[in-house]
Amino acid sequence: MGGFSFQPAEFAKWATALALAKFLSGLNRPDLKKALGVSLAIIGIPVFIMILLQRETGVALVFGAMVLVLYREGLVAGWILLVGLASVLMMVFGIKYGEIRLILFFCMAGIGFSRFLFIRKKTMRQILFTLAALTYFGGIMFVAGYAVSKMPDHQAGRIKVWLGLPVSQEIQDRYGYNTKQSLIAIGSGGMEGKGYLDGTQTKFRFVPEQETDFIFCTVGEEWGFIGSTAVVLLYSMLIIRIIVLSERQRSDFTRIYGYAVAGIFLFHLLVNVGMTIGILPVIGIPLPFFSYGGSSLISFTILLAIFVKLDSQRLLILR
């Protein structure tokens, strides 16, 4: 607009956090269990779909961080989080070991039915529960490979390269180059790094997107393991501080919003650092207050500034 470009999806982060906080804070405690579906149907899913239609898959996945809010408010039980984590693992196994999925399924079945050896009452309910779990996780494992084949080429290529699946050299060079060069840069930094602006991989532009999505590799190469650890610790202290401040709030609105802020920062930290060191697929989201980008910087500033302002007034007003 007028020579100035911005990313609307970035501003949806703090707007969604405010909307979720406003909605959940206005509910009575007995209604919290019913609020999960409403929260997702009215606030979470529509925003996710709108951003996904803009081909901003990485930003859309950030809204998964709101599960921290739902867990804190009692809308999502701990076992649901475990099921979600197990589902992701089954998807990875289904894609990585597609040729032996049937063997893996029978191994799961053996483990599932072996639990009966440790159950005193072998009721029909237990049998149905085991069958349902096997059907669910087995279905995810078998469908995962098909789902990847239907993804856009750049997303499927990134996942295949990340999992080390056999791909052509063209796909390897196209979708694995960034991560490979990032790993070289971080590894060459050693313990103390090469020094400020002395990193060869970053200085000579071997690493694409080193100012934005892959900026953490610059830290690793120039400041080494010590500098990288210091950056991660600083982010961890910030997130923990936000959670501590959220817990001391007198109003539900501020507490819920604070947890949304902490969840968003935590997701960005884990995914950005994870994809830079190769343990997560390349998604393309910035490191807060570190990556270059006007929209993300403004969005993170607003996100944190609102919480700081609400916290400063915690003793004056009850929102």
Considering the chains and any ligands shown, give keywords for the structure.
about 325 residues, mainly alpha
General description of the model:
The chain is mainly alpha-helical and 319 residues long. The chain folds into two domains: 8-76 and 168-312, no CATH class; 77-150. 70% of the residues lie in helices and 0% in strands. The protein is built from 14 helices and no strands. α1 packs antiparallel against α2 (32-53), α8 crosses α9 and α13 (252-276) packs antiparallel against α14. The longest helix is centred in the last third of the chain and has 33 residues, at 215-247. The model has no long low-confidence stretch (mean pLDDT 82).
Largest sheet data: none
Q: Helicity level, as a percent range?
A: 55-70%
Strand content: under 5%
Averaging pLDDT over every residue, what do you get? 82
Pick out the low-confidence regions: none
Number of E strands: 0
Radius of gyration: 22 Å
Query: Roughly how many Å apart are the termini?
Result: 36 Å
Overall geometry comes to: globular
The count of domains is 2
**Which structural class should the secondary elements be placed in?**
mainly alpha
Q: Name the helix and strand elements from N-terminus to C-terminus, one letter apiece.
A: HHHHHHHHHHHHHH
Total of DSSP H or I helical runs spanning 4+ residues = 14
